[in-house]
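Researcher:
Attend to token order:
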Amino acid sequence: MLYATASQTVGPYLHIGLSGLNCADLTASAPELAGQRIVIEGRVTDADGEPVPDGMVEIWQANPAGRYRHPDDARELPLVPGFTGFGRVPTEADGSFRFVTVKPGTVPGPDGRPQAPHIMVSVFMRGLVKHVATRMYFPDEAAANAADAVLALVPAERRGTLIASDAGNGTLRWDVALQGQGETVFFDI
């Protein structure tokens, strides 16, 4: 007979066993990587606007040609040696995180239409039963963002929570509010 087990949260020990996979600079092992280099900086905050000092942020993205390094992406697009498209960083005491990467190319959606360039993001933290998933879109892609089928599912007044802002010098600012005022849109996956 099977018995139900108690539910578990992803924290507060989520860093144990995972820190070996941390990668803040997705470009470091890919010297041949071309494309627009970017820095993504932000903060993760809780429902009260307080920083989440013990969270973890993961990103997954396509390369500048629009191809994922994954067996399911068998399209005839180039892969770049050393570029996995995966990054993971713990949040700092002030809830901040930072990635160095390249702007991804467009990828096809489920219906085959191109999606706007975006980065998939997961956030893990104490108290969450499972991670939350969202996307970060680019501020210089207004036309592509307007045509993106996934972004179109988000109420217009909340889409801004998914679009980074240009902080200058190749840096994008994108904060994650887990609840409360300006809560980031999360996807049910």
